[in-house]
Every structure is written in C-alpha cells, then in structure tokens.
Design goal:
Helix content: 25-40%
CATH class: Alpha Beta
Radius of gyration: 17 Å
CATH architecture: 3-Layer(aba) Sandwich
Structural class: alpha/beta
Number of strands: 9
Shape: globular
Distance between the termini: 33 Å
Order of helices and strands: EHHEHHEEHEHEEHHEHE
Strand order of the largest sheet: 4-3-5-2-1-6-8-9-7
Number of helices: 9
Strand content: 15-25%
C-alpha cells in the first residue's frame, strides 16, 4: 500500500463509528489482530492531519435488546450495553497509545477512574491538539443506539462526516449476507434510507443526520486500507446525503 493516496484529505474533522462486531470475530470477544490493524489505519489518517473522534459499540460483549428478550428490564439491559462499550473503548485506547497516538476516552456516564466525563469543549480541544477522542456509553440514555450517539456527538464537536465502519461494503437494497443478488448503492438519500428502511443506521440517527445535513459514509472497515481511501476522497462504500 502506498504511503499516501493521491489527493488531499476530504474532511478536516470526522467521526468514526465502530460497531461492537468490529471488535470481536469468530466467537472471540476481542479480535486483537483486527483491532490492531484498525488502530494502525487510524494512526495513519491522524498522522496525515485528520482530526478524528470515535464512537464504539458494545455488541460483541453485550446486547441490551437480547437481554431484554430474556426478561431483563430494558433500561437496565441498555445500561449493561453502555458498560460494555467502555471495555471496547479502553481496548482501542490501549492499541492506539501503543502506536504512539495521544487519546482520551470520554463517557456519558461518569466513571472518573477510567475515563473523562463528556465535556463538549474539552473534547473539541483534544481534537484540536491532535488527540483521538473515543466516546463510550452512547448517549448515556437507554433506548438510544450508539449510532444515534455517533451522530449526536459528531454534531456537538462539529465533525463534517460520519464514517461508519461495518463488515459489509456499504448500503445494499437488501441484506447481502442473505441475498446473493443484493445491489450496492454508491449514493443514497436520507429520505430513501428512511422510507426503504435500509440498513444504514437506525431511523433516529438518520433523521438527526438529515436535519443537520451531516453526510454518512458506510464502508467495509475489515478491508485493509479502506479508512485511508475514504478520508482521501476515493469512492469507497456508500455515501448517504441529501
């Protein structure tokens, strides 16, 4: 892979959304090889000048909806999921700092011994200083997904784009893991994503992005080099916009 793709950074500040599935694979809670590879790609784009924040999910460890289906109170189950995101955030922080990046973990639920509380102006200052800010515990409220948290935090820190790293190549008209004839979109509008219930993000997250004219790029984070390609403006994945 070349040291730097042709062209310039497409955005100055971005929000990277990593689902819990990105952290775990093949029955492992944490796939360290994958996390280190993604950490290396994050290090590359930050070294190139991108101000990057990250929101992490926790589905590799805990899914509140699944727990609630087993009879657990839904709000309590969702709080369990928030705690799971902290584990992923600390794992990512350790990997990034091992690669020489300065990082801060901020949480919406106070746990000062392991992370800073979310303070908007402090988060922005960290980004301006070249630190990667990792947001955990979602919005701090049950019934809201980490996708919604990613959009909310992106708006708060004035990020110019949401980069959603997934295990598929972008947004399809139907589930590509179940349908061989699924068609990949190059671009799709917010409204079409909502109307057709395309698997971009949940409807709250998409609506919030639409209301704030915040574009979303959905791409396969498991393909090496894709993050770098996206931030340098290559046509990778699906662009969701107005």
């Amino acid at each position: 892979m070349a040291d730097q793709p042709p062209g310039e950074l497409r955005w100055q500040r971005a929000m990277l959304k990593l689902s819990g599935e990105v952290f775990g694979a093949d029955g492992e809670t944490i796939d360290w090889q994958r996390v280190r590879r993604i950490g290396g790609e994050i290090t590359e784009v930050v070294a190139a000048g991108l101000e990057l924040a990250v929101v992490v999910g926790g589905g590799n460890i805990w899914r509140g909806r699944d727990a609630s289906e087993q009879g657990m109170d839904r709000a309590t189950a969702d709080y369990g999921g928030m705690v799971a995101t902290v584990i992923n955030a600390l794992c990512l922080q350790d990997v990034l700092e091992g690669q020489g990046l300065a990082t801060r973990v901020q949480t919406a639920i106070e746990m000062r011994e392991v992370a800073e509380p979310f303070i908007r102006r402090r988060a922005i200052r960290h980004l301006e200083k070249g630190r990667v800010v990792i947001f955990a515990t979602g919005t701090g409220n049950p019934f809201f997904t980490t996708d919604t948290a990613a959009v909310l935090r992106a708006i708060e820190i004035a990020a110019q784009v949401i980069l959603k790293g997934t295990r598929v190549d972008g947004v399809y008209d139907k589930d590509p893991e179940k349908h061989a004839d699924a068609q990949l979109f190059d671009t799709v509008s917010y409204q079409e994503a909502l109307t057709r219930r395309l698997k971009v993000m949940d409807s709250t997250a998409i609506s919030l992005s639409m209301d704030n004219e915040l574009p979303i790029v959905v791409f396969n984070i498991n393909e090496q080099g894709n993050l770098k390609r996206v931030v340098f403006g290559e046509a990778v994945g699906t662009l969701v916009t107005g």
